Amino acid sequence: MRASLIQIAVNPDETVDARRRRAAALVRDESASDLVVLPELWPVGAFAYEAFATDAEPLRGPTYEAMAAAAADARVWLHAGSFVERDGDALYNTALIFSPDGELARTYRKIHRFGFDQGEAVLMSAGGELAVAPCPELPFGLATCYDLRFPELFRGLVDAGAAAFVVPAGWPARRREHWSLLARARAVENQAYVLACGTAGTHAGVEQAGHSVVVDPWGEVLGEAGRGEEVLVVDLDPARVATTREQFPALKDRVLGITAPVRPGTGGR
Ligand SMILES: O=C(O)CCC(=O)C(=O)O
């Protein structure tokens, strides 16, 4: 199975429409792959807060239309990254996943919003549902950018049948080491592939980390991009998930329900 991660640049000198056309052409170019991935909020930019409301789209808006057509033309599974979805008065950071016939296979609304008390955390509403894309060769769980810091989400996706995680992001260059480390950690602890697709360029004054990466279920980095716009193409063996989980069955040793409160001063005993 071959995957292409399109680390598209989001720069302010390109309109959303132009970038949408360019992204669709880049997806069509990857017709030799089985799975193609775009990053988080690439139409507007993950930090372009002032554009969230003005450039928000309904679920089946221009980004949906362009990506559905590109997936069908390329005959690929397409994780089309995420866009700003407007649903009534609410905005969501919503990922779209298409099957190779261009049908919408899954959506995922980002659960952990980034920004603490500003930006996405106040402008967007949170999703509340885990989602696994039903790609027959490699069912992949969905998580977006800041979600990567929350391992319990990934455990939930494993329990829902994920053999891989696809993580689109607009991760800042300043915390690039966290990105690389957490991608490997999520792969190792869950014995699953991680396909983490970041953004290139600088928008809203935030330089993007790039460094999209594909990690196998043993934690080995199969491929890593640089900082600029790039398409990272990696071959995966989906059978490695089952063999890793069989040969080193750590997931079977999970002890559930160990979140009981520890009273201060007892040393946990
Ligand atoms: O967690 C981080 O350091 C970056 C997260 C982020 O940029 C996002 O979720 O948009």
Automatic annotation (TrEMBL):
It comes from the Bacteria. Coiled coil: none annotated. Residues 1-238 form the CN hydrolase domain. One of its GO terms (molecular function) is hydrolase activity. It holds the Pfam family CN_hydrolase. Keywords: Hydrolase. Transmembrane segments: none annotated. Belongs to the carbon-nitrogen hydrolase superfamily. NIT1/NIT2 family. This is Hydrolase. It comes from Streptomyces roseolilacinus.
